[in-house]
């Protein structure tokens, strides 16, 4: 065991050198975690001691997760803590409304809890990787995370060789949890105090490189929330007067959750800050070595809800400003191209705010030209270009009366692969558009995101290695207009001038945390490309067909599809669906047994 953090850092530096020599010879799953995804985290602590006998915490967390559903549609999970420090868990692949029906939520007893929603990942949708995660030693810790770590090889090596901690998934969230648990265990104490926790989180921030917003729950103690030293991924806290006095506390990725659950005094967690919340007290401290504050600007472009405020910036207002500034660029480009437009039409839904302001600034009519089928999921994460193209037609329908005989400017939040954009342009032409101009509220996306957004590998990005003219030709548009990076930054920074820079790595290829080299980027490219995703999906299908049951022995096909092979590893899932026919028997003696089963 290392007794000092400096020893751990020295070890990790040595491991990085060692791992470099074998980087290309090890299986991918050993080199880095593959879920590159934006997720949603939520923590709730109720002051009312009577809540230990009710399901109020679990009910409110489920409601809160529904407000974060846009951040994660692949899996959802909640773990609550009741009397005696006992944990209760429900988690599974699926939407919040499907995972947390009334009987499932009724089993989530207790006065505090942690929730998580996960976005579909790059070839990873295993039930085992649904969060929150749990370790029983030390003290019983539950953990949820949004972001991505870039030095996973050395962390895995350390946890295996020195800390002797088993990592059961490819998720870097499990790595973060075990680094935190190991730091706490080094105290050797029967019961830890706040000073021990601050020290443990501070050591973690100096060990783990990347983006992370995390909430942890220690059995019977309270909640811990912390953010990476650069503040790349968002998190905040809010308060509410308890039912019988005292103060309830909420932790969430976005402020919209606070508003929806009746909390006020929303405050962003600072970069590198750790906050400890108990029934009797709240303590906060800057625990990380000071770094440049650089929140991810793509939260404002696409991911966050417009009714959220992140790092003091209204997402809605920033998108309005994006439309205003985009209009200035559009005017210049139309003059160059000697074109005039008849109507501005948004690509639903994220771009609506910017498109409306852009149309107003241009003094051109704004129209809704596409009707969206809200029951089809997002497409840029779907494996295979053919499937994406088909899905676009299912997702949107063009109204001929808004396009016929007109020069139309379509406004979208961004252009990623270009597959969706190409189909939308063709749809506009199919219903009679004379010319189609495509405007993006974001600059060209040319580089990988390594901080928690599941974007394609660079060679799949339409702007990678192409000029604007080549992009227009590729998607079939008469003209493509991009927002400038300077205008995008200004559209956000003007609402909080204290933010001197943003993470704009997908536009610039500059990674604020360091630790991102060509080898790492090449590995991500191999991991994220369509072939890797297709192969991963095929392996999952073959596992079902072969009735492979992992450590639990053979399963039937539905068991495998629901991820039940990991069901005895972790917290007990207290959904009544456990009583269904042919379902495995709960085993509460092995950690947190997850026993959610779809009908």
TrEMBL record:
InterPro entries according to UniProt: GATase_2_dom, Ntn_hydrolases_N, PRTase-like, PRTase_dom, PurF
EC number: 2.4.2.14
Chain segments annotated as coiled-coil in the UniProt record: 517-547
Glutamine amidotransferase type-2 domain sequence ranges: 39-280
Entry's Gene Ontology BP terms: 'de novo' IMP biosynthetic process; purine nucleobase biosynthetic process
GO-annotated molecular function: amidophosphoribosyltransferase activity
Pathway linked to the protein: Purine metabolism; IMP biosynthesis via de novo pathway; N(1)-(5-phospho-D-ribosyl)glycinamide from 5-phospho-alpha-D-ribose 1-diphosphate: step 1/2
Annotated PROSITE patterns: GATASE_TYPE_2
CDD domains per record: PRTases_typeI
Keyword hit for Signal: yes
Signal peptide positions (record): 1-24
Region span, Disordered: 576-599
Annotated keywords: Coiled coil, Glutamine amidotransferase, Glycosyltransferase, Purine biosynthesis, Signal, Transferase
Similarity annotation: In the C-terminal section; belongs to the purine/pyrimidine phosphoribosyltransferase family.
Listed HAMAP family: PurF
Name of the protein: amidophosphoribosyltransferase
Organism encoding this protein: Kwoniella mangroviensis CBS 10435
């Amino acid at each position: 065991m290392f007794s000092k953090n400096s020893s751990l850092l020295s070890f990790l530096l040595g491991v990085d050198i060692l791992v470099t020599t074998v980087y290309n010879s090890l299986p991918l799953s050993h080199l880095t975690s593959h879920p590159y995804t934006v997720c949603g985290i939520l923590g709730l602590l109720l002051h009312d001691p009577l809540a230990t006998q009710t399901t109020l915490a679990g009910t409110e967390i489920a409601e809160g997760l529904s407000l974060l559903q846009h951040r994660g549609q692949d899996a959802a999970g909640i773990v609550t803590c009741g009397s005696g420090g006992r944990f209760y868990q429900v988690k599974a692949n699926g939407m919040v409304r499907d995972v947390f029906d009334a009987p499932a939520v009724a089993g989530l007893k207790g006065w505090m809890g942690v929730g998580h929603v996960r976005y579909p990942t790059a070839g990873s949708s295993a039930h085992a990787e649904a969060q929150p995660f749990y370790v029983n030693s030390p003290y019983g810790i539950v953990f949820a995370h949004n972001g991505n770590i870039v030095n996973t090889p050395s962390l895995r090596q350390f946890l295996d060789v020195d800390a002797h901690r088993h990592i059961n998934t490819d998720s870097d969230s499990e790595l973060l949890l075990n680094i935190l648990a190991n730091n706490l265990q080094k105290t050797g104490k029967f019961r830890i105090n706040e000073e021990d926790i601050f020290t443990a989180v501070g050591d973690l921030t100096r060990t783990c490189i990347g983006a992370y917003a995390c909430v942890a729950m220690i059995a019977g103690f309270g909640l811990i929330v912390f953010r990476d030293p650069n503040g790349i991924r968002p998190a905040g806290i809010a308060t509410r007067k308890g039912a019988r006095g005292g103060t309830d506390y909420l932790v969430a990725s976005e402020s919209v959750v606070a508003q929806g659950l009746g909390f006020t005094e929303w405050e962003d967690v600072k970069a590198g800050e750790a906050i400890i919340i108990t029934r009797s007290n709240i303590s906060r401290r800057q625990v990380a070595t000071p770094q440049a504050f650089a929140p991810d600007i793509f939260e404002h472009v696409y991911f966050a809800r417009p009714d959220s405020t992140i790092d003091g910036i209204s997402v809605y207002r920033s998108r309005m400003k994006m439309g205003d500034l985009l209009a200035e660029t559009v005017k210049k480009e139309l003059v160059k191209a000697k074109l005039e437009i008849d109507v501005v039409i948004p690509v639903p839904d994220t771009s609506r705010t910017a498109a409306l302001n852009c149309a107003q600034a241009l003094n051109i009519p704004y129209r809704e030209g596409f009707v969206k089928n809200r029951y089809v999921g997002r497409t840029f994460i779907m494996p295979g270009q053919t499937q994406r193209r088909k899905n676009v037609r299912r997702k949107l329908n063009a109204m001929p009366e808004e396009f016929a005989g007109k020069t139309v400017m379509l406004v979208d939040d961004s252009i990623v692969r270009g597959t969706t954009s190409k189909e939308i342009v063709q749809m506009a032409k199919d219903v009679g558009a004379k010319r189609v101009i495509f405007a993006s509220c974001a600059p060209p996306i040319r580089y990988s995101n390594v901080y928690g957004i599941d974007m394609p590998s660079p060679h799949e990005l339409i702007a990678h290695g192409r000029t604007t003219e080549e992009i227009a030709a590729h998607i079939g548009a008469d003209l493509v207009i991009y927002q400038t990076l300077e205008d995008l930054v200004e559209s956000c920074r003007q609402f909080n001038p204290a933010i001197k820079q943003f993470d704009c790595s997908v536009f610039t290829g500059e990674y604020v945390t360091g630790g991102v080299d060509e080898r790492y980027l090449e590995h991500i490219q191999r991991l994220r490309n369509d072939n890797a995703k297709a192969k991963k999906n095929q392996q999952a299908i073959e596992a079902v067909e072969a009735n492979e049951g992992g450590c639990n022995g053979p399963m039937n096909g539905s068991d495998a599809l629901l991820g039940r092979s990991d069901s005895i590893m972790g917290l007990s899932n207290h959904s009544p669906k456990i009583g269904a026919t042919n379902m495995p028997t709960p085993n509460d003696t092995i950690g947190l047994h997850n026993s959610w089963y779809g009908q």
